[in-house]
Design a protein that fits this description.
The complex is a heterodimer of chains A (about 150) and B (about 140). Chain A has 8 helices and no strands. Chain A is mainly alpha-helical. The longest helix of chain A is centred in the middle third of the chain and has 19 residues. Classes of the chains: A mainly alpha (about 150), B mainly alpha (about 140). At the A-B interface, helix 2, helix 3, helix 7 and helix 8 of A face helix 2, helix 6 and helix 7 of B. Chain B: InterPro entries: Globin, Globin-like_sf, Globin/Proto, Hemoglobin_a-typ, Hemoglobin_oxygen_transport, Hemoglobin_pi.
């Protein structure tokens, strides 16, 4: 089980408290699709993904980004119990969505960059370190039920 | 993975705007890398890695200079970094996985200091460029 220090929990909640989940989620997903275009393979039914502008403006991308980051919020509420929290989602991503877990790591890294752009200097090295740990643990939990 | 004309312009443009801050960004990149990925410290047992370390600053300056050099010779990164590539293969032998970690931290530094510069398109180009640099530096490993 992952251990979270008091400082880490503070760094997580103080950042999360200031995050606009809809905007941040939309931006993170859009950047994932732009920076790593092969990730578009999962979104054939999203319509126009033909350019960065199209991707950023795509309402399905925005909506799905919001959904993904909202789910991330569940992780933050259940830091002591991530594997259980994500058990069903993990099965879904394996059995129905067939998503390579590497994509969770890619999205996690992109999220960090979006947070850095948003928070600037306040996204200190300690803050980044804590959040890199968090996205890593979330990715691991999401991959846990893969078979 | 090939850098398009647009990628090259995006990268050159970014480094031109970063200008004199490159050295400072290099140091901060290392600081963040050591904090977020403690295993990377294993390559620097001979360094003082404490806050404000002169050695980290000095090394950050070197790393930044190499990135600037690569950006300035973006049509031939392999040529520009050939000696550095030899050094990494023969002497330093930093595991290839670590270049991605350094790249991530450099992106975070650029994002935190220049959010407006790091548009999605520039982000994509810079990520590709950093991958290309990592590939060149590990090209002669075996």
């Amino acid at each position: 089980m992952v251990h979270w220090s008091a400082e880490e929990k503070q760094l997580i909640s103080s950042v999360w408290g200031k995050v606009n989940v809809e905007e941040c989620g939309a931006e993170a997903l859009a950047r994932l699709l732009i920076v790593y275009p092969w990730t578009q393979r999962f979104f054939d039914n999203f319509g126009n993904l033909s350019s960065p502008t199209a991707i950023v403006g795509n309402p399905k991308v925005r909506a799905h980004g919001k959904k993904v980051l909202t789910s991330f919020g569940d992780a933050i509420k259940n830091l002591e119990n991530l594997k259980a929290t994500y058990s069903k989602l993990s099965e879904l991503h394996c059995d129905k969505l067939h998503v390579d877990p590497e994509n969770f790591r890619l999205l996690g890294d992109i999220l960090i960059i979006v947070l850095a752009a948003h928070f600037g200097k306040d996204f200190t090295p300690s803050c980044q370190a804590t959040w890199q740990k968090l996205v890593g643990v979330v990715a691991h939990a999401l991959a846990h039920k893969y078979h | 993975m090939v850098l398009s004309g647009a990628d090259k312009n995006n990268v050159k443009g970014l480094f031109a705007k970063i200008g004199g801050h490159a050295e400072e960004y290099g140091a901060e990149t290392l600081e963040r890398m050591f904090a977020a990925y403690p295993q990377t410290k294993t390559y620097f047992p001979h360094f003082d890695l404490g806050k404000g370390s002169a050695q980290v600053k000095g090394h950050g300056k070197k790393v930044a200079a190499a990135l600037v050099e690569a950006a300035n010779h973006i049509d031939d990164i392999a040529g520009a970094l050939s000696k550095l590539s030899d050094l990494h293969a023969q002497k330093l032998r930093v595991d290839p996985v670590n270049f991605k970690l350094l790249g991530q931290c450099f992106l975070v530094v650029v994002a935190s200091h220049n959010p407006a510069l790091l548009t999605p398109e520039v982000h994509a180009s810079l990520d590709k460029f950093l991958c290309a640099v990592g590939t060149v530096l590990t090209a002669k490993y075996r």
